[in-house]
Amino acid sequence: MGTHGISGSRELFMGSDAFTVIKGCNCPVLTVPDTWNKTSFGKVLFPVQLKPGTFEKYFYARPIIEKNNSEIYILGLAERNKPRELKELASLVDKLKLQMHYDHVKFQSAFSPCTDFPEKVFQVAEEFSADLAIIAVNTDSSKTSKNIPFAQQLINHLKIPVLSIKPISHHIISDIQPEFMENGQEV
Fold it and tell me: 11 lies in which domain range?
């Protein structure tokens, strides 16, 4: 599905078609900016928050990651003034890193205690030269300081394709033993 960047007051009225489709779909949706001309995803940005869907989005995206021999940039996003959240996020990211290590996926990770998650994702996507962002679109669609859902801001403004995955489970998977996971199932 194509996207285009929007800004200003038009942002509240335009550019929501892709997000509306994504919210209504039960399958992953790939949105591609009309200016995008690459055919592979060598560098993948993987933002992680304490929201449902972290492992689901990884397992959905793993075939793309394997096919492209992608390098993953795990970006842990937590509120600056919430140290408990940062600690829980670190634990979640550690489990994800173990799973990626088990799957022989190249990755790097960073944590970003901040207040503007979309802006941080835009910045890291550019610095990392990402070819794809993989996000979870949660049913709560947490809004940012601009009162626009986080996922919608990424879909509308990232200059790279965005793979949006709506998690089936509605809980944070924090007790997974990654070394025993294969395609999202215990082995």
Answer: 2-169
